[in-house]
Amino acid sequence: MASRPDAVIVGGGIIGLAAAWTLARRGATVTLFERDPVPRGATWAAGGMLVPLGEAPDPGPFLSFGLAGLAAWPDWARTLEEAAERPVDFTRCGKLLVADDAEAAAALRRRFDWQDADGHDVRWLDRAGVERVAPALAPRWAHGLHLPDQARVDPRRTGRALTAAARSAGVELRFGEAVEQILRLDGRVGGVRTAHGATVAAGAVVVAAGAWSGGLSGLPRPLPVRPVRGQMLSLELDAPVVDGLVAGAGAYLIPRRGEDDRPLLVVGASMEEAGFTVATDDPTVDGLRRAAEALVPELREAPEHARWAGLRPGTPDDLPVLGVDPELDGLVYATGHHRNGILLAPVTAEAVAGLVAGEMLSEPWARAFAPTRFHGGR
Ligand SMILES: Cc1cc2nc3c(=O)[nH]c(=O)nc-3n(C[C@H](O)[C@H](O)[C@H](O)COP(=O)(O)OP(=O)(O)OC[C@H]3O[C@@H](n4cnc5c(N)ncnc54)[C@H](O)[C@@H]3O)c2cc1C
Fold this sequence. Notes:
Largest sheet: 8 strands, mixed
Structural class: alpha/beta
Number of helices: 10
Bound molecules: flavin-adenine dinucleotide
Low-confidence stretches: 1-5
Number of strands: 19
């Protein structure tokens, strides 16, 4: 039973789809419920940077989980592309963080110092070095931290590939059907009730509903996942202006291939506490554009392609919620991935498949990501 559980997944973003695909490949029968007919959660909105060294505040559990995520991505992308017969555009493009004043340079330098001391592939650059990595940057960006092995992927292509791969692995995809309630049966999870009133029995239920995860009824205790809005825009280019990811004051830049194969530059992103409203506002997006132009002056000529917003699933300590509920056997949490759910999808999916099969999550992640940690539990 434990090695072949029937699982219901709640949510069809990258986390739910990746978990469903992984479980199905391990032989489980899986049904995935996604509220929207075409998923448009954080995954659709994301930049697709795979940058644990750029995101980790310190050498803690997030960094080790993120590094495991980055290490998993190349093979995962290849397997996914083969299964789905679609590209996901994984690219080992590196990330350059730049500073134009002493305070920002000192912050980058502190990051360089601890990451260099820990043996990561990080390079400290003077102006000439910055110019070599990204010649289009304005001269004021005089200090740089280069992370050459960081990567990117196209999250929308990845979402579509995962949908195709999950379907061909036998996952039953029920898009356009929201789950309303987690059900109990004999002291453990029993399945779900949908918003249409249907009841679906399952041995395991995986909560992967992104920023909306805390709104499910039937959870044993409040789940403090909240929406953290991010606004973005993309610019049309005749030719790429940077090869890799770039971040400076107020904006980051991500090269991307448009649906028509033409080069785009994605510019992100705001971080706002704005409830569940998924909307852009002109002052915020215009501010991102100005910050991008301060990085690369030639972007002033680039026509805008699109602007959009998405809701990151944030948690009080910015760490994911990943583990089995200690009071409701079979209830698995895979949510709260905040700014890094694309990076963390492959390792989260592996972890979920293991948890559903009765395996333990390794330390230090089990403790750091424990679903009960906000309520005094471990
Ligand atoms: C602007 C922006 C930029 C970002 N950039 C990056 C980046 O560069 N790199 C990175 O790693 N991460 C990035 N992220 C974060 C990343 O997008 C998220 O961490 C990740 O997408 C979370 O995936 P998810 O599957 O948990 O959530 P989502 O993608 O939001 O999916 C959750 C799904 O659950 C569905 N749902 C909700 N309630 C229910 C219900 N009751 N029943 C059924 N379905 C339900 C929703 O419709 C949704 O489709 C970014 C996010 C934003 C907003």
